[in-house]
Amino acid sequence: MKRALILAAGKGQRLGELTATKPKCLLQLTHENTVLDLLLDAIAKVKIKEIIIISGFANEYLKDYLSKKWASKFVFKIIHNLKYNEYNNIYSAYLAKDLWNDETILFNSDIVFDPAILNLLATKIKNNSAQSYLVVDNYQELTEEDMKVTINDKEEITRIHKSLNIDSSFGEYIGITYLKGKTRLKFIESLENNIKANNLDLYYEDALDQIASQISVFPCSTNGNLWTEIDTKEDYELAKNIAKKIYEPNKYTDKTSYSSFK
Q: Which pLDDT tens digit goes with each residue over 117-151?
């Protein structure tokens, strides 16, 4: 892999005053690092150098932050989604369609995860270079709000949607995707078709779900490593605890299990 595509256009309205002036991905997690810092650190560990960011809310704030802290380590291309307040993230994914190649991994910008998870994906890509993957947590107990996935007897993903039945679901998609070859092209076609049909209230996962029966995508398990997405203030507190446990273990003495975090 050579390229990361990070979707960071959203306003994070459920976080209230915490994101009143800055993007959600720039919330502070540890003394030195934001959500985006930890994401970029994990990306650097798998030797990716090119970063595409779809920005939106507080675009100049984000650009200034990146230029001051990360410009020496990555080559950035920032695409400003001017419709961030009107359209869902399907439009952000669509804006990157001409830059998205077989060397690209997609990331949601509001996830905090153990870098071991990305290393697991990188290893799968290296060992099975023709396959496509969604990173899936099949360890934690599912809830109705989770972006659930189902698989068939070949272990291919057959659906991805929040509305799926918990009992028949394999796990939760965590917001990291690698699509290869015809599968990637089919997905981009699905994005384009939805944009043309004015389905701008959808998520990119919806575009993927629409074509799931026509493509071959496999789950890459988190293997129980810690992660969370940040939508609410409660999520943010959880993310800070996870970040401290992963990145500042000498400052975090609680030995609670993964299930206690999620």
A: 999 999 999 999 899 999 999 999 999 999 999 99
Q: Write down the domain spans for the chain.
A: 3-249
Q: What is the pLDDT of residues 8-49, one digit of tens each?
A: 999 899 999 999 999 999 999 998 999 999 999 999 999 999
Q: CATH homologous superfamily of domain 3-249? A: Spore Coat Polysaccharide Biosynthesis Protein SpsA; Chain A (3.90.550.10)
- The contacts of residue 55 (CB under 8 Å, 6+ apart) are 8, 9, 23, 62, 63, 78, 79, 80, 81, 84
Give the residue, 248 or 231, on which the prediction is more confident: 231
Verdict on whether the full-model pTM lies above 0.70: yes
The per-residue pLDDT for 247 is 82
